[in-house]
Structure formats: C-alpha cells, structure tokens
C-alpha cells in the first residue's frame, strides 16, 4: 500500500480507500477511471467481480474477474448499469475518478444515483478538493434521492500542491452511502456539511499572498487618493481666501466710488461732465 509508485493517492487516501474495501468485500464493484491500474488492483483484490471504465484503453494485464470498458464512461456506464438492473444485481462499491470536469463529475455521480443497480452501495469519489470536480459533485441533488443515506465529500481532505502541481488543489476522498433498504429519515440531511469545506481553506491559503498584494495595492491607491484630496482641499482653501480678499477689496472700491459721487466737488462738476459727454456724442 505504501510502496506503489503509480498510485495517485496520498498515504491517507490509500489507507482509507483500502480500509473501506477490506470492510466491504464487494461482490460487484465498478471503477470509473482506470488510468495505470493502481486503484483497480486494490478493488480487484477485495472484490468478486470488477468493471473498470476509461476513455483510453489501459495497457494492463488483469485477472479474469476484471472487465475493462474502453470509451466514454458517460455513454458506457448507463448501459452497464441498466444491464445489472435488469438482471437484478446490486453494485456494492464504486470509485468515481474519471472525468475531472465539473459537468463530467456531476454526470458520473447522477448516473449512479439514478440507477436501480445502485441500491446498497458505497461510492467513493477521488479529487474532491479539486475546484472543478468539487463544483460538479456539489451540484448533485443528493436530497432528491431518498436512498442516499448521506454524502460526506470531505471524508479525507485533499491537499495544495507544492513541489508537484504547485498551487493546484488535488486529492481528497468523498463518501456517498446508498441504502434503499434503510433510507434516511425525513429530518436527516443528505449532505454532511457540519464543518468548513477543507478545500476552501486550502484555496484561501493559496490565494492569501495574492490577496495581500491586492490589499497593499488598494492601500497605496487609497493613500495617493488621500494625498490628492488634501492637496485639493488646500487649493480650495487658498481660492476661498482669495475670494474673501477680492470681496473685501470690492467693498472698499464701492465705498470709494460712493464717497466720490456724494462729494460737493463731484456734484459741482456734474454740468461739465454732461457737456463733455454731449460733445463726445456729437463728434
């Protein structure tokens, strides 16, 4: 379990995955996403019959109780599930680790939950910390399926890539328990979300430096804006001061004009000014 060089699960994920299989011992199991066959080898070890789906034909030697299905799982899986349902068979265990797009992950899970062959089933989904995969799994309406006892999409938390896939969110195991014979009560919730989504905390940690830089840039812009506002306020104060000085000077000149026009000399010389204006008009 700890030395497999191609198994794309962390040690914690491997231990949880293998522990579920050892406890369950499935009669019929399905894997979506064969890849290099590491998970398939564990499923085959504990299961009586396994069907594994992958878009590309894997280069693997498999035992007789394992059947490989090559092609689009969104087309092949519903056909196989329908055949099992017609035969009255139940799928005991499923690993969902194929299409890592949001729509693909959602469709794989909904194809399983809609099937009458998925009645008493343990479903494990890998890479539930990845943003796209998680978005697809979160979009599934688990509550619409009464046979879903609960869905806990952070059974094993994922991780934030460091040396490998730096800055990317991967890993994590989600658990969906299906039991048509013992469905959940009306007051039970389908999705166990009593604690924070672990991947969101990882995402926040990843994006913290960027947000800090953005915050520093916003603070710098705010500081520049404050300085500009101070400059404008000072300029406004100077303009208002000049306005007050101009108003005082205007009042002074008004008083001078008023005093001049009321003086005896201005009144005595009024006829002369009238003659001057008349002469100017004649010219």
UniProtKB/TrEMBL annotation:
Ranges in a coiled coil: 215-256
Domain of life: Bacteria
Molecular function via GO: methyltransferase activity
One record GO biological process: methylation
UniProt keyword terms in alphabetical order: Coiled coil, Methyltransferase, Transferase
Keyword Transferase: yes
Uppermost EC category: transferase
Name of the protein in question: Class I SAM-dependent methyltransferase
Record flagged with keyword Iron-sulfur: no
Protein EC: 2.1.1.-
Matches recorded under InterPro entries: SAM-dependent_MTases_sf
